Amino acid sequence: MVEWTQEERVIIKEIFSKLNYEDVGPKSLCRILVVYPWTQRYFAHFGNLYNPEMILANPKIANHGVVVFRGLEMAVQNMDNIKNTYANLSKLHSEKLHVDPDNFQLLADCITIVIATKMRSAFTPEKQATWYKFLSVVVSALSKQYF
Ligand code: HNI
After folding, report:
1. Domain of life of the organism in this record (predicted)?
2. CA of 68 to the centre of ligand 1 (A)
């Protein structure tokens, strides 16, 4: 089981408290779809993803970016039990959506870049280390039902 220090808990909660999901959600999802275009195949039913401008302007993508951050919030609120918290979400991505689990890490990287550009110098190496640990646990929990 993952152990969290008090400092780590504070850092994660502090980062989340400053996030505007309507801003970072769409930006993170757009980033993965542009940088790793094969991920677009999972969102074909969202309509026009023809180029970066269309992706950015797509309201379904924007909305889903917020959904992803609400999903991350579930992990923040259950930091001692992320694996079980994500059991159903993992099953959904595996059995119904058939999302290749390698993509979870790619989205985690895009989220980190978006957050770094928001926080700028406040995203210290210490905060990044804690953030990386948090997203690693999220990625691992989301990948759990694949095996
Ligand atoms: Ni993901 C649906 C959370 C990564 C493709 N995803 C969801 C939902 C949540 C969620 C929450 C809504 C579930 C529901 O309706 O019950 N996804 C997350 C999180 C991550 C993640 C927290 C990683 C940080 N998802 C990914 C990745 C892909 C992905 C990397 C594909 C590249 N997810 C989807 C698709 C759906 C989805 C597709 C369904 C969308 C829809 O509405 O049709």
Report:
1. Eukaryota
2. 6
